[in-house]
Write a structure and sequence with these properties.
Elements lengths: L18 H24 L3 H34 L5 H25 L2 H34 L2 H10 L2
Length: 159
């Protein structure tokens, strides 16, 4: 059985030229790679799981860089808020990175129980994190950045 991360219901039609559309789609890509790694670990297919987990690590770091290097500074400059939602998201990025490092260590040890426990925790953390970004931060960023949002998305697409 292939597990999928639940998708939050969207009340609007997001295009790939909006921050919400582009980064939500990027979340989906990361989610899909994560689920594949989790399934491989559950099946004891360790080398494949490690490769897929490495792919997930690359995808999530690319996503975080898009946010931390481009979106968050633009949002903070436009709003003047440096201790608000972007600070919380950066802290959660650190937590996700720590959990991912633990998962990679468990995969290297071929510890199925540890892998599955870590993936459950990481899954919950990512679901909560993504919901905050997709339902609050991204729409707020699109509204706040207005016409400059499309240029920011174009810059993110280059990364």
């Amino acid at each position: 059985m292939v597990r999928k991360l639940p998708r939050p219901k969207q009340s609007r039609d997001f295009s790939m030229t909006t921050i919400a559309g582009f980064l939500t789609d990027d979340h989906r890509h990361c989610d899909d790679v994560f689920v594949a790694a989790e399934q491989l670990a559950a099946q004891g297919r360790w080398e494949e799981a490690q490769l897929r987990c490495g792919e997930f690590a690359g995808a999530i770091e690319r996503h975080f860089a898009r946010e931390e290097d481009l979106l968050f500074p633009a949002f903070e400059a436009a709003t003047g808020m440096t201790t608000g939602p972007t600070a919380v998201m950066r802290m959660e990025h650190r937590q996700i990175r720590q959990m991912l490092a633990s998962l990679q260590e468990a995969l290297a040890r071929r510890d199925r129980n540890d892998c599955l426990g870590i993936t459950e925790t990481l899954l919950l953390l990512m679901q909560q994190h993504n919901a905050k970004e997709e339902n609050i931060l991204y729409p707020m960023s699109d509204r706040t950045l207005g016409a400059s949002a499309a240029g920011l998305v174009a810059d993110m697409q280059k990364r």
